[in-house]
Sequence to fold (246 residues):
Amino acid sequence: METLTKAIQAAYWQERILSEAQLARLLDGSPQRRYNLVNRALHGGELLRLRRGCYRLAPAVSGSLPHPFVVAQALRPGSYVSMESALSFHGWIPEAVPTTLSILPGRRRDEALVPGLGSFQFSPLALRRGFFLEAVDRVPFGGQAALVARPLRALLDRCCLLRQDWPGLAAVTQDLRIEPEMILGLRPDDLEPLRPLYRHGRMRSLIDALQRELDSLPRGAASSSICCVSAWRAMPRPMPGRRSRH
Fold:
């Protein structure tokens, strides 16, 4: 076992994602010595490099895989997990999302593929200053944490990224296979903190349309509403590239 691996295990950091600064505190000696120890651990398969200056013990050594949300946070500090990844995490959509989707500050899109840990996409949005982390929570995963959007924020982020007008609850529910109970749990007032978040007028119009639709839901007949939404999802879809004949 390499010297660096032993030092990480002795500090009980085997499940952490580590920066160069943390390794410097962990290891004695010169930067050249630290560089050599890191390279030995990498070549020995005991250490993974997630990106430049960002490392974790290999799963075969640590005995566990890091949560992909924690990896995303380490790859792009300051980002948060959103859109389908956050919706799946909160149980709004049934499917697992193979690529971890995040929103990051700035204007440049980024993506990364970390062998053995998955693929990651980071997208910028036109957001107002001071609102970037509105409706975003710090969620613990083992010994570390990641920033994750709440469901309604994740849904609006997706609409913003795709530059969509509001297609209606029926279309959104069918497209994403959102559980009907989740939609019925929303209230028009839930949108108010998110109204000043996005820069584009299109998003304010979208929020207005969603708010009106939520306000029109028959709350006293929740079971019948669920049946209606379930029926939207159960409707047969035409085969791609083929038109129905009448």
Summary: The beta strands are 18-19, 47-51, 54-57, 80-81, 99-103, 110-114, 118-123, 136-141, 144-149. The mean pLDDT is 86. The CA atoms of residues 16 and 144 lie 7 Å apart.
